[in-house]
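ZP: hey, is the iron/sulfur cluster complex queued? I don't see it on the tracker
AM: it wasn't, my bad. submitting now with these inputs:
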Amino acid sequence: MKHIFDYTRDQLKAQMKDVGLKPFRADQAWQWIYQKGLADPEAMTNLGAGDKAKLQENINFKLPEVTAEQKAADGVIKWLFKLEDGQEIETVFIPQGKRGTLCVSSQVGCTLTCRFCHTGTQALARNLTAGEIIAQVWLAKRQLEDFTDADTARKLTNIVFMGMGEPLYNKDNVFDACRILMDEKGFAMGGRKITISTSGVAPEIADIGEDLGVNLAVSLHSADNETRTKIMPLNKKYPLEVLQESLKNFRLRENRRITWEYVLLKGVNDSMEDAEKLLKFIKPFPSLVNLIPFNPWPGSPFECSDLEAQKAFRNRIAKAGVDVTLRLTRGEDILAACGQLRSESSGRSTVSLEYPSVVAVYGNEKQKKLSEEKLKVKIESTEGDS
Ligand code: SF4
């Protein structure tokens, strides 16, 4: 039996018809579920007893279990959700000013073995259904007490597909989940508020722009084929030239840009030569570069770049007029890195890693002076922590 969160509104209308209910009941159910935060037919007071019974008989309303909730001192929250088949997935909430970003998983484990990524050490168990992706958002909103009519008061404002898994290897379900997130009668999130992050599954990238109009982030991490293949084996299949070509076919909406994720690994991808290669690669695109200091985990073959190297790399990108952020570790007092809480839960050894967050944006002269000051404070506080 399909889960209620699996249905787009049109699909739910068709299902209502199939079980002998009026299609408009789908709109009513959606209001209860996605606007009022009540995913239980018994609570839907504008449905009669017969209609409620039909829904219960034909649609699965069982919610995943919240098996762990960890809150960091800086407000980052990480949840572990147990699915019906016992698999567990992670979801992380990162508050930052008025913005609250939820990082959702698209697969249980991952096939791609990126060598700096903790999830890459976990074999793929399976793809998530659209409903299991939506469940992460719905449960996060419930835990945050964020089902409210007032737009301005919303805690959860943005979604990023940067949790466990490669979203484009589960494209149909991820796309359906995006449609549900964007539906005006559902969560009503704009495409600008949703970002799909890919490690570079070139043939599928264009569809993100054509079908959905959400934002695109690319986990790049190196603009040198040899280095990138070493740290991201997928690069062998889709090398940089192929990736760049596919990105040129991506229909970027007006006033949007591609976000490039770049984990700084000491002596691997953090030299000035690497920065030059990165600039050359991203030149054809409106860009935002997110630099992420690596925080090593046991068994990881990398070290974090020195602070001087991080700053020099960031300055080189900014000097070229490209917006760049250097991220600060977040949620350090919880197991906030992708895949770690799940490892902990399944009894594998692990330690706290980082969850990244933007600390300063460069490339805009007006903003730069203010951001330099903020960055100085943040970097000093990071130094003090280590
Ligand atoms: S970075 Fe993403 S694609 Fe690569 S192993 Fe980790 S979860 Fe998979």
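AM: back. Residues 347-386 have pLDDT under 50 and may be disordered.
ZP: great, adding it to the tracker
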